[in-house]
């Protein structure tokens, strides 16, 4: 488009945000993020959980004020002030209000007179395809219809920017696709009052399908690692080779090292004892190894292909792959997951041998597991309160992460029979139940 | 009720009212008459309250059955006045606690304690206070009675509202902030609806608790002063004093009628209506039903008839309060915030020490350490009673409750009965027990004890019924496929399934029993007085004698017992149930 360059609708400069107390354990979720949003574009924020993309969206919505940096909606000469409105992943509808009342709520807050309110709400309901449902309560609607209410509610206040926080991820595949197409149609036919859309997603295909520009976020802390312009013409076709190539390219960017010397982007933050472990079940770990070891992968799998084959979102697949890598069962390189010899031995072995092998890897490569085992071995009673390890973990991470990490290591340790844990007494020990 | 039903068909009642033409329809006339009648009743009751105190002497409460309906009305009005006060208290204090961290620091523990303290013991102090406020008028005593009922109702309502405010779903909070809802709009659209189911339930519980106190608070004897306000409570007190069996039976009957009436005409419809505020996105399987609510919803005429009742609510809900122009406070540095917090804690600490000092000064000159020790011993006696009786009640009601709960056709019918029994003030039945004990020459120390759980055991029953009916059917099917039977079934299916519910019921029952001990350990019938050794009779005696230091001591000791009981027994059980036995 060859429009005269105008001021952007939204500018974000140098935003950092940390959660938690200023002193003590805090988590840096956004680090030095810049973003501009101009007219007539759909921009996607793509990243895994923990990349702070939702926090960024909420900063723009005015729901969160970032620890550092500026979020601005610049005043533009000759134009109305930029306003934003938001669509939520969980729909966030008031269950005690009807569709009509839910849509009207933003206008009510702005004290729009009743008749106009009704007129505008009906128009929005009509636009979004909710005719006939005006008097229904949200609990009577399907997920797709609920998100339509969410959209109508966001559009009825005439925002210039529509913010969407993973708007389709709580919907089933078919419903999500219908809603995406409907939204894109409304957008291309310019039937909505909005000038620009900013959406958060962790679904790579969704981002490529909908966006004109994609910002790829790293996680822990969230930084913009790449900006990708999608110049494929709309409507886009998922099977188009150019489309596939772009998806593949983004997968690679999300799994490779950011640069030599820099830590590889990973959803496992921290090092050594302070590593926050994701809760991945040993069944899932075993299942993934078996799948990759078998045909057609034969030990090496392309992540996008694997994800679509297994019906996983990228966000769900990455942590499992990373645990495999942490345990030295596999290597993650350039969007591929490659099994190491240990994994082949694991896949071919019987249950007890598997447990033994898993235990060896657990105690050699997961520092926390090794630490717990060492403490138990040293103590004459072979017992240690879990509190002790929780405290140690909380020195280097937040309470939630510490709890999650301990739960992960307990599950792995139990499977490997490396140590036992009694939930009632909150106690680690070496006894195994007979 | 501030927030009334908004079905879209009646969204513009005023417009329709005007549009209906100049001639009022028959519905309007009927509605007008009904409303006017209600207004006259309320005004008449209020007028009576303003009469001079002396009128009570010239026109004492009599045991004339013709006056009973009026007495019932006066008592009910008192109940609802107290309920109104409790709602007001709930909306202000609980909101304050939820919005201000500093206020929360004081209000939450205070509510928690007040919830479990024997408020009946405070009656002595409040009567004196309110009579001083309106000297020579009935209003003072009315206020004291209403306040006594209020003190039995307000705390759990405030607590439930506070908890609802603290657990408002994050996404709805974000929507209201993103659309910049004004505080009032946020209250009407988000906070009140979200809190509604819990609040309605707690209001019903409070109403039941209130009945218990009505009986004790209408006929007030403090030292030499005895005031009997016209009402069922006074009627009962006089009937007991005269040993008039028929009059007691009449009062019990009247009370039953009143409870059934407001249950059917007020609470059932409200519960059915409040179901729409339950925060879940899926339609629930079992909806609470009310014939009246269904009738109103189905019948156009009746709906129109009742529409005027909802106007004030709608009007309130649609008010746009002018936005207050409060200059934004400068953001304080973390250090300054810490200093402020510290100052606040110091201030609270100072107030607490002052209160302790005041209490000591009040009690110390009259009472010695020996008194404290002996009061403590009496507390142990009452505690033994509470523990034994709750245990016995559990042994009886848990099996019965599980049996009923597992049979839906029975639980549907019996659940409301158990709730009614819990709402029924057990103290009106005490005279029958006295007659039995005297007649059979039983030991009051033992046989007065069951009176303490007479009214509170139903909490155990209806919670266990609810728990047993909530055991998932797949778990029950699994148990029957694997042939679980007898003790193994109880150990592995029945007891874990009902445990969280049982703890709730037993907690409520034991709290109620402590409170009931004040009236249950010292009872009379005509000129026969029976007394059991315990903290309850100690407080009752001190109140009757106007011995304030002893009342204060007794109440303080009982509070300590109740709180210690809650903290060391019920709370840990509750946490255990939360952590290990949740079925989701």
Would you spell out the secondary-structure blueprint of this structure?
The complex is a heterodimer of chains A (434) and B (584).
Chain A: E1 10-20, E2 26-37, E3 41-46, H1 53-61, E4 68-72, E5 84-87, H2 99-109, H3 114-127, H4 143-155, E6 161-165, H5 173-188, E7 196-201, H6 204-210, E8 213-217, E9 224-229, H7 241-255, H8 282-293, E10 300-302, H9 303-310, H10 314-326, E11 330-333, E12 336-339, H11 341-348, H12 351-365, H13 367-378, E13 383-385, H14 386-394, H15 399-416, E14 420-422, E15 427-429
Helix pairs in contact in A: 2-3, 2-4, 3-4, 6-7, 8-10, 8-11, 11-12, 12-13, 12-15, 14-15
Chain B: H1 13-19, H2 26-49, H3 55-58, H4 68-99, H5 101-115, H6 123-133, H7 138-166, H8 170-178, H9 183-218, E1 219-222, E2 225-228, H10 232-242, H11 245-274, H12 291-298, H13 300-317, H14 334-363, H15 369-405, H16 408-423, H17 430-440, H18 444-447, H19 450-454, H20 457-469, H21 473-481, H22 486-520, E3 522-525, E4 528-531, H23 535-545, H24 548-580
Antiparallel strand pairs in B: 1-2, 3-4
Helix pairs in contact in B: 2-13, 4-5, 4-7, 4-9, 4-11, 5-7, 6-7, 7-9, 9-10, 9-11, 10-11, 11-12, 12-13, 15-20, 15-22, 15-24, 16-20, 20-22, 22-23, 22-24, 23-24
Explain how this protein is built.
- The complex is a heterodimer of chains A (434) and B (584).
- Chain A is of the alpha/beta class.
- Chain A folds into two domains: 10-255, P-loop containing nucleotide triphosphate hydrolases (Rossmann fold, 3-Layer(aba) Sandwich); 274-429, Orthogonal Bundle (Arc Repressor Mutant, subunit A), CATH 1.10.10.
- In chain A, 41% of the residues lie in helices and 18% in strands.
- A six-stranded mixed sheet of chain A has the order 5-6-7-3-8-9, sandwiched between helices. Chain A has a three-stranded antiparallel sheet with strand order 2-1-4, with helices on one face.
- In chain A, a hairpin with a 2-residue loop joins strand 11 and strand 12.
- Chain B has 584 residues and is mostly helical.
- Chain B has three domains: 60-278, MetI-like fold (Orthogonal Bundle), CATH 1.10.3720; 331-365; 368-580, MetI-like fold (Orthogonal Bundle).
- Chain B has helices at residues 13-19, 26-49, 55-58, 68-99, 101-115, 123-133, 138-166, 170-178, 183-218, 232-242, 245-274, 291-298, 300-317, 334-363, 369-405, 408-423, 430-440, 444-447, 450-454, 457-469, 473-481, 486-520, 535-545, 548-580, and strands spanning 219-222, 225-228, 522-525, 528-531.
- Chain B has a two-stranded antiparallel ribbon. A two-stranded antiparallel ribbon of chain B has the order 3-4.
- The longest helix of chain B has 37 residues, at 369-405.
- Chain B starts with 12 loop residues before the first helix and ends with a helix.
- Residues 1-24 and 281-285 of chain B have low confidence and may be disordered.
- The interface between A and B is medium-sized, with 35 and 30 residues.
């Amino acid at each position: 488009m060859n429009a005269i360059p105008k001021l952007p609708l939204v500018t974000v400069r140098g935003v950092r945000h940390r959660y938690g107390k200023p002193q003590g354990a805090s988590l840096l979720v956004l680090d030095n993020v810049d973003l501009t949003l101009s007219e007539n574009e759909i921009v996607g924020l793509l990243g895994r959980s923990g990349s702070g993309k939702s926090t960024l969206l909420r900063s723009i919505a005015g729901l969160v004020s970032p620890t550092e940096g500026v979020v601005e909606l610049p005043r533009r000469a000759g134009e109305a002030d930029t306003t934003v409105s938001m669509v939520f992943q969980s729909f966030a509808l008031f269950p005690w209000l009807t569709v009509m009342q839910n849509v009207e709520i933003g206008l009510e807050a702005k004290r729009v007179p009743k008749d106009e309110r009704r007129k505008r709400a009906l128009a929005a309901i009509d636009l979004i395809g909710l005719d006939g449902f005006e008097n229904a309560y949200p609990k009577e609607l399907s997920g797709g219809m609920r998100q339509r209410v969410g959209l109508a509610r966001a559009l009825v206040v005439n925002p210039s920017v529509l913010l969407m926080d993973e708007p389709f991820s709580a919907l089933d595949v078919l419903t999500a696709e219908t809603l995406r197409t409907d939204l894109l149609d409304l957008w291309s036919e310019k039937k909505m009052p909005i000038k620009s859309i900013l959406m958060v997603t962790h679904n790579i295909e969704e981002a490529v399908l909908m966006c004109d520009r994609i910002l790829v976020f790293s996680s822990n802390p969230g930084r913009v690692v790449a900006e990708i312009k999608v110049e494929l013409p709309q409507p886009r076709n998922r099977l188009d080779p150019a489309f596939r190539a772009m998806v593949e390219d983004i997968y690679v960017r999300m799994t490779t090292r950011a640069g030599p010397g820099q830590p590889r982007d990973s959803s496992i933050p921290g090092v050594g004892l302070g590593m926050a472990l994701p809760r991945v079940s040993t069944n899932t770990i075993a299942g993934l190894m078996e799948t990759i070891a078998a045909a057609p992968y034969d030990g090496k799998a392309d992540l996008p292909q694997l994800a679509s084959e297994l019906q996983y979102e990228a966000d769900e697949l990455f942590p499992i792959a990373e645990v495999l890598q942490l345990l030295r069962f596999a290597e993650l390189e350039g969007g591929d997951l490659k099994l190491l010899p240990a994994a082949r031995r694991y896949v071919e072995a019987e249950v007890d041998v598997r447990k033994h092998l898993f235990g060896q890897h657990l105690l050699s490569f997961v520092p926390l597991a090794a630490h717990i085992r060492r403490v138990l071995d040293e103590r004459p009673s072979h017992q240690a309160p879990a509190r002790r390890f929780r405290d140690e973990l909380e020195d280097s991470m937040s309470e939630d992460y510490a709890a999650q990490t301990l739960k992960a290591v307990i599950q792995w340790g139990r499977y490997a029979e490396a140590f036992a844990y009694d939930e009632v007494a909150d106690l680690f020990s070496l006894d195994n139940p007979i | 009720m501030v927030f009334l039903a908004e079905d879209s068909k009646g969204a513009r009642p005023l417009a329709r009212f005007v549009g209906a033409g100049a001639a009022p329809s028959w519905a309007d006339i009927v509605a007008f008459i009904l409303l006017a009648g209600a207004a006259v009743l309320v005004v008449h009751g209020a007028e009576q309250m303003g009469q001079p105190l002396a009128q009570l002497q010239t026109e004492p409460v009599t045991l004339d059955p013709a006056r009973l309906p009026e007495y019932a009305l006066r008592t009910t009005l008192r109940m609802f006045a107290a309920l109104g006060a409790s709602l007001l208290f709930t909306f202000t204090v609980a909101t304050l606690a939820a919005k201000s961290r500093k206020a929360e620091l004081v209000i939450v523990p205070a509510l928690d304690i007040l919830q479990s303290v024997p408020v009946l013991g405070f009656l002595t102090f409040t009567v004196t206070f309110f009579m001083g406020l309106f000297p020579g008028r009935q209003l003072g005593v009315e206020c004291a009675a209403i306040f006594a009922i209020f003190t039995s109702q307000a705390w759990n309502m405030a607590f439930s509202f506070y908890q609802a405010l603290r657990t408002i779903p994050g996404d709805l909070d974000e929507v209201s902030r993103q659309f910049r809802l004004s505080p009032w709009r946020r209250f009407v659209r988000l906070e009140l609806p979200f809190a509604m189911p819990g609040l309605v339930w707690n209001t019903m519980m409070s109403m039941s608790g209130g009945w218990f106190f009505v009986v004790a608070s209408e006929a007030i004897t403090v030292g030499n002063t005895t005031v009997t306000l016209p009402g069922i409570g006074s009627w009962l007190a006089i009937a007991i004093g005269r040993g008039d069996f028929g009059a007691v039976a009449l009062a019990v009957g009247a009370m039953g009628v009143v409870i059934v009436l407001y249950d059917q005409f007020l609470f059932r419809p409200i519960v059915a209506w409040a179901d729409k505020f339950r925060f879940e996105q899926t339609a629930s399987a079992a909806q609470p039903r009310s014939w009246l609510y269904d009738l109103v919803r189905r019948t156009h005429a009746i709906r129109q008839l009742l529409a005027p009742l909802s106007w004030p609510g709608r009007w309130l809900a649609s008010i746009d309060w002018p936005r207050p122009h409060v200059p934004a406070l400068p953001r304080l540095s973390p250090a300054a915030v810490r200093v402020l917090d510290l100052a606040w804690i110091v201030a609270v600490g100072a107030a607490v020490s002052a209160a302790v000092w005041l209490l000591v000064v009040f009690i110390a000159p009259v009472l010695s350490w020996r008194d404290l020790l002996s009061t403590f011993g009496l507390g142990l006696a009452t505690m033994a009673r509470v523990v034994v009786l709750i245990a016995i009640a559990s042994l009886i009601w848990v099996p019965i409750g599980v049996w009923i709960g597992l049979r839906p056709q029975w639980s549907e019918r019996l659940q409301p009965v158990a709730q009614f029994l819990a709402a029924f003030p057990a103290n009106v039945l005490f005279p029958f027990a006295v007659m039995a004990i005297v007649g059979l020459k039983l030991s009051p120390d033992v046989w007065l004890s069951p009176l303490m759980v007479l009214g509170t055991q139903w909490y155990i029953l209806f919670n266990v019924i609810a728990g047993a009916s909530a055991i998932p059917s797949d778990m029950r099917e699994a148990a029957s496929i694997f042939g679980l039977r007898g003790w193994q079934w109880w150990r592995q299916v029945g007891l874990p399934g009902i445990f969280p519910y049982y703890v709730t019921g037993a907690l409520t029952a034991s709290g109620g029993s402590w409170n009931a001990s004040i009236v249950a350990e010292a009872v009379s019938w005509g000129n026969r007085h029976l007394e059991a050794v315990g903290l309850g009779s100690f407080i009752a005696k001190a109140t009757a004698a106007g011995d304030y230091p002893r009342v204060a001591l007794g109440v303080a000791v009982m509070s300590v017992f109740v709180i210690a009981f809650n903290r060391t027994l019920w709370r840990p059980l509750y946490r255990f149930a939360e952590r290990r036995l949740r079925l989701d």
